[in-house]
Write a structure and sequence with these properties.
The chain is of the alpha+beta class. The chain is 39% helix and 11% strand. It has eight helices and four strands; from the N terminus they run H-H-H-H-H-E-E-H-H-H-E-E. Strands 1-2-4-3 form a four-stranded antiparallel sheet. A hairpin with a 5-residue loop joins strand 3 and strand 4. Helix 2 runs antiparallel to helix 3. The longest helix is centred in the N-terminal third of the chain and has 12 residues.
């Protein structure tokens, strides 16, 4: 009987309580590797339950995704990476609301709502070879604002107290 009840719950999109319990036990004991393994067994769409547990226990969570909607919904801070390097970081609202690095600007411009309003722009150039990274700014071959200074590696520049970008031209383009 219990098997049929569990199958009925799962058919309605409810996760298996055994899996949730396993996830919760390992998370509570600080065994994040095992908690991750249990979380991967949860049905799609149960991410809310995971976030509720993270919030309830005041834990931090590292979210690696290309989905800016997930970042906007669940995260307080974010870092944008290009070719394995952080090019911009800060509070989500600041980074998405006022992107400073040209790559972040291109990402935000590629959101469906922005494309519908402003049209689609193709980024030129080619991505760098990750096995043989060039010196300087890794985005320079694709950047519409590239200058000779971009041949040297940029340092992180403060956009605000909590928001920074690794770009020589931050603040220069007004």
């Amino acid at each position: 009987r219990d098997v049929y009840k569990r199958q009925a719950r799962e058919a309605q999109g409810e996760p298996d309580v055994t899996i949730l319990a396993g996830f919760h036990v390992h998370l509570a004991n600080g065994n994040l590797k095992e908690a991750k393994a249990w979380a991967e067994r949860l049905p799609h769409g149960t991410g809310e339950l995971v976030w509720d547990l993270v919030r309830a226990r005041s834990l931090g969570a590292l979210v690696i995704t290309h989905d800016l909607g997930v970042v906007a919904q669940y995260c307080a801070r974010m870092a944008v990476m290009f070719a394995g390097r952080i090019v911009e970081d800060g509070p989500v609202r600041e980074v998405l609301g006022s992107p400073a690095h040209p790559y972040t600007q291109a990402l935000v411009a590629s959101l469906p709502g922005r494309i519908a309003k402003l049209g689609y722009t193709v980024t030129g150039g080619t991505p760098p070879d990750l096995y043989d990274l060039p010196s300087g700014c890794l985005y320079r071959d694709r950047c519409p604002h590239a200058q000779p200074v971009c041949l040297t590696a940029p340092a992180r520049v403060a956009v605000s107290a909590a928001h920074g970008a690794a770009c020589h031209l931050v603040g220069a383009r007004a």
